Amino acid sequence: MSFPRTFHRALLLAALVVTPAVARAEDATSPSAADAKRAQGKARYERGVEAYSAGRYKDAIDLFLQADSLAPSAALSFNIARAYEKIGDDAAALQWYRDFRRREPKAKNAVEVDARISALESVLAQKGVQQVTISSRPAGATVIVDDKPVGVTPFTGQLTPGAHQVVLTLKGYADTERELVLRAERAQDLEVALEAQPASATPVGTSTSGAPAPSPSAPRKGPRFGPWPWVTLGAGGVVLGASLGFELARRSAEDAANGERTQVDYKDKLDTEQSRQTTARVLLVAGSALVVTGGVLLAIDLSSRRQPEKQAQLGALCLPGACAVQVRGAF
After folding, report:
1. What is the DSSP string of 59-81?
2. Within this chain, do residues 114 and 18 fall inside the same structural domain, yes or no?
3. Chain centroid to CA 171: how far?
4. Which domain holds residue 149?
5. Nearest to 238 by CA among 298, 288, 293
6. Which of 24-28, 178-182, 206-210, 319-323 has the lowest mean pLDDT?
7. 19 with 118, same domain?
8. Nearest 5 degrees, angle CA 261-CA 263-CA 268?
9. For the whole model, what pTM was predicted?
10. Which own/partner pairs from 97-100 qualify as long-range (CB within 8 Å, at least 24 positions apart)?
């Protein structure tokens, strides 16, 4: 489906007429700033028209977008949609035609634009997807569809037809969840008004869950030494293993020395055997010390975790002829 060429030209020119009026209404309190923005928007628009006429449609899209950010105009959405159609981007063209209709609900060319929207919706349906636009008040909320973040509002994208779970999150507002049932043949809009979360002060000494906060002076529970007992035990095991290795090497050197026939070779092997023996003994002592230290730390750690917290108790006992007072517990 295509529109008459005169229809395209009329709407492109409409953007040039509408843009200044919007800019003046938007920034009436500062005429100089409004004039500057209007001039910049007009310049971007004119360059966009030139790029469009020259077949440089991607450049035209960028320039029309810049013009719209400087001096918003619904007609620019139509121009952007036409440029996207020229490069064969059906989804983007549909997005901007729909944007034009939202911004200009009483457009004179509404019938023709709606027909183009229907045609593009059919194209997406044939591809097994359909377009959805999700907006929020206020904008800027993170959009999560089926547990996957997809963008921020206002968001426009393509989903497979059917049911989808949509969650909007924005700092200072309650998370909002909606179920979206997307039809296969028609694009859809989902608008969500976010509810602000009331600012609640948390009293000192209480937790956010409502349970009393632990006393700052309460004794710390759990391991006292963290992972160090296990690290020390592991290091001791490694050192003992190395000691065993040197001991085996020492015995091998001793056997080799006993098998030598010359005094010189025997002396070399003996020196090697004695060196390995010394290293093995040093490693044995160091490894044993590490294992003992790690074991002591671990025993203290485990006993401190199992030991119940004791409180001071006071008791009195009276028997015929005598009374006694008993105090026990931790202070």
Report:
1. HHHHHHHHHHHHS--HHHHHHHH
2. yes
3. 14
4. 128-198
5. 288
6. 24-28
7. yes
8. 100
9. 0.55
10. 98/131, 98/133, 98/187, 98/189, 100/74, 100/75
